[in-house]
Amino acid sequence: MAEIRIESVKKEFAGGVRALAAIDLNVVDREFVALLGPSGCGKTTLLRIIAGLETQTAGRVVIGGRDVSDLPPRGRGLAMVFQNYAVFPHLTVFENVAFGLRMAKADDARVKRQVEKTAALMHIEMLLQRYPAQLSGGQRQRVAVARALAVEPAVLLMDEPLSNLDALLRMEMRAELKGVLQAAGTTTIYVTHDQTEAMGLADRIAVMHGGVIEQCAPPMEIYRRPATTFVGGFVGNPPMNFLKRRAAGGAVSLGPLSFKAPRAEGELLLGLRPEDIAICADGQGFPFDVVIAEPLGAQTLLTGKVDGDTLRIATPPEITPRAGERLHLRPLDGRLRWMDAETGKSLDHAA
To answer: What is the pLDDT of residues 231-272, one digit of tens each?
Structure first.
């Protein structure tokens, strides 16, 4: 397989529009890295540069120790799966899966062996003689992934491959895809705007915003210790809460509660995940005035006010307070995150 190194890659389009600003990213052999971010953040542009479908303005792409920056896609030893399936309607499933092997002039025995192997991995072996028009959307997506894996690429690039599927099928395909890629051992870069996909599939997530990587880390570190307010607000549903407070004498007050701050003075943001806030039965926490209660089955989501700031908390489903009711809250031990109010950067990471 192959390691991927993205070194100071920049991309500007006509008119000076900056898409990427000096991106550095290392993906180790057999690792699965997700590029996660909103539309327009640069994640697909970066993937296309790695694939050779787009040319970088500066920097280089190294795959398996070889600088491939100036090579065409075919010379980079990779395969790509697109959002729109891109299967050939006039070819059977067998010939769709075999397409890359045929282009590489593989002999018939290897074609048969590889097609049957990858078809079994993707659970489409019973569909090999059908045409794409006879398949469901999920089946066509399986064919697209099988075609990419059949050539045994050093690198697999995937551009939002599940986004056209309905929610239930997307969940099923996500679980299947993780097992298949672990079995294949292929180095994978996966573009998505869906945080659930990124959290569930990736070894590491690179969260992108405005053409830069804000944080690249394992999923639970991204979730528990976001490096910026953007990461905390983008990853998590509902997102992380941020309460602005001023440090004085090295401490920050939240109602009757006092917390040791990472700096002596100045404005800070206190970051709290909705599920990391407990209701105090003894009334010794900070006051929270309920505005809306949303029963969601597994939990109840409460939206309310703390000194004028909006806060969301996740509570057990049996807790269903009414609008206007006052509760008292306390952060769970070790779950409070500290951010700089001006830069939005984590002070936990700086410490």
So the answer is: 999 999 999 999 999 999 999 999 899 999 999 999 999 999
Residue 287: exposure state from Cβ atoms within 10 A (0-12, 13-18, ≥19): middle
* Cβ–Cβ under 8 Å, residues 55 and 12: no
| Listed residues 207, 228, 249: the one ending a domain | 228
CATH of the domain at 248: 2.40.50.140
- For residue 351, what pLDDT band results from cuts at 50, 70 and 90? very low
pTM reported for the whole predicted model: 0.91
DSSP sequence for 47-73: HHHHHTSS--SEEEEEETTEE-TTS-G
Q: What is the 3-state secondary structure (H, E, C) of the chain?
A: CCCEEEEEEEEEECCCEEEEEEEEEEECCCCEEEEECCCCCCHHHHHHHHHCCCCCCEEEEEECCEECCCCCHHHHCEEEECCCCCCCCCCCHHHHHHHHHHHCCCCHHHHHHHHHHHHHHCCCHHHCCCCHHHCCHHHHHHHHHHHHHHCCCCEEEEECCCCCCCHHHHHHHHHHHHHHHHHHCCEEEEEECCHHHHHHHCCEEEEEECCEEEEEECHHHHHHCCCEHHHHHHCCCCCCEEEEEEEECCEEEECCEEEECCCCCEEEEEEECHHHEEECCCCCCEEEEEEEEEECCCCEEEEEEECCEEEEEEECCCCCCCCCCEEEEEECCCCCEEEECCCCEEHHHHC
**How confident is residue 173, by pLDDT bands cut at 50, 70 and 90?**
confident
Average pLDDT (217-227) is 96
Structural domains in the chain (count): 2
User: 221 and 278: one domain?
Assistant: no
Q: List all residues 6 or more positions away from 218 whose beta carbon is below 8 Å from its beta carbon.
A: 203, 204, 205
